Amino acid sequence: MLLAVDARNSTVSIGIKNADSWLSVVRISPDRTADEYALLMQSAAERIPGIHISRAFIASVVPALTPRLIQAVQAAFGKEARQIGPGIKTGLRIRTDVPSELGADIVCSAVAVRQRNSGASLVADFATAISISAINSQGELLGVAIAPGMEAAIKGLRNATAQLADVPLEAPPAYIGRTTSRSLQSGLFLGYTGLVHHLLAGMRRELSEPVQVYGTGHEYGRIILDGFKDPDVSVCKFVPDLALEGLSFIADLNS
Questions:
Q1: Which domain does 153 fall in, by range?
Q2: What is the strand order of the sheet 93-94 is part of?
Q3: DSSP summary character for residue 217
Q4: Residue of 20, 35, 97, 105 marked catalytic
Q5: Same domain, residue pair 59 and 157
Q6: Bridge partners, residue 24, by sequence
Q7: In this structure, are 212 and 109 located in the same domain?
Q8: DSSP β-bridge partners for residue 211
Q9: Rounded mean pLDDT of 120-126?
Q10: Distance between CA atoms of 216 and 110, rounded to whole angstroms?
């Protein structure tokens, strides 16, 4: 069985997979000790009959967190976890100017989408940052657009202003907000919808070929993508655990 760990700034996703089936996927906060992570991994595994972890792979974009996760895997299962990075085969051709700058999450999601679609794709990941990646029909990852995520934008507003309360991440009923909460929802949710749709449309034009669009990450991304219309987009899907899916393929490729 495979233990796959996708470590982000706001959450850590831990998946256990047997052959083609995910037996367990849990999400926990990134502020735990190595011992806490080990206990949580063991707890997730104990609910699976006949569990035996034979491989462990980690995709992390939080360098300070990575050693704790490696230590946790060793403590929980006695396995040395492999990291997505130099020396790991991905099956993806990266055509950015500085490939080493790409986050492991972007690479894993692109790998997953390439397995789903042999044509051109755009991948929108709604996390602490919103990243939109472009992959052409030759299987080349050409580049990425990155913007602060909606939660990060709310946090920045809250830190910079004195009278803003917590705002739920949901679409408002109108563009013209008549309360502070509705005004923030309009500017954030509807504003980010325009940002994402504009980037998707621009990238599709630059690819100069029909594309499929895949979303992943926070659930508000599903709502944003639902409203995206383009005559050259044949499919628009939301896959919550796209990075784990790609991490699983990379694990198979390197085992």
A1: 93-241
A2: 93-94, 140-148, 129-135, 120-126, 211-217, 233-238
A3: E
A4: 105
A5: no
A6: 16
A7: yes
A8: 120, 233
A9: 97
A10: 11
CA distance 207 to 189: 27
| Domain end point (choices 65, 83, 101) | 83
Say if residues 204 and 232 touch (Cβ distance below 8 Å): yes
Are 49 and 129 part of one and the same domain?
no
Total structural domains in the chain? 2
Domain check: are 38 and 137 in the same one?
no
Q: Is 105 a catalytic residue?
A: yes
Q: Considering the domain boundaries, does residue 246 fall inside one? A: no
pLDDT in tens, 82-120: 999 888 999 999 999 998 899 999 999 999 999 999 999
Structure pTM?
0.90
- 99, 73: one domain: no
Cβ burial, residue 63 (10 Å; 0-12/13-18/19+):
exposed
Q: What is the pLDDT of residues 187-211, one digit of tens each?
A: 989 999 999 999 999 999 999 999 9
- Contact by Cβ (8 Å): 3, 77: yes
Residues 186 and 172 sit within 8 Å (Cβ to Cβ): yes
Give the distance, in angstroms, between the CA of residue 197 and the centroid of all CA atoms in the same chain.
Answer: 18
Residue entry with tokens 């011992």 = 35
Q: Compute the Cα dihedral for 47, 48, 52, 54 and give only its sign.
A: negative
Q: What does DSSP say about strands 12-18 and 233-238: parallel, antiparallel, or unpaired?
A: unpaired
Answer with the one of 83, 111, 135 that is the final residue of a domain: 83
Helix (H, G, I), strand (E, B) or coil at 3: strand
